[in-house]
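INTERNAL TRANSFER SHEET
From: sequence group
To: structure group
Subject: X8 domain-containing protein

Please process the attached sequence and return the structure record in the designated field. Keep the field labels unchanged so the import script can parse them.
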Amino acid sequence: TNSKPSGQKDIPDTWCIAKPNAPQDKLQGFINYACGEVDCGVVQPGGQCYDPNTVLSHASYVLDLIYIYRKSCNPDIGIITTVDPSYGDCKYP
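Return from structure group:
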């Protein structure tokens, strides 16, 4: 059995995804900047998360990569969710 030490609470998994109403130009700018720091191959043509080929979808994945890398979610364009945004073959880390 996996018992937790007494007093320790379950912390849900969280992801950082793009706000649905975030401006497209800000999302694209973030993608361009962030992909200089992290590997964005998964949202490029042929990548598991390329489709749907939308700025919002790509930005969500890249925001989550940066969230893991930096431990922070960009508050201007991102929101924290406890619902796994993975779909099909596209698995969010």
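Handover comment: The mean pLDDT is 92. The first strand starts at residue 15 and ends at 18.
Transfer complete.
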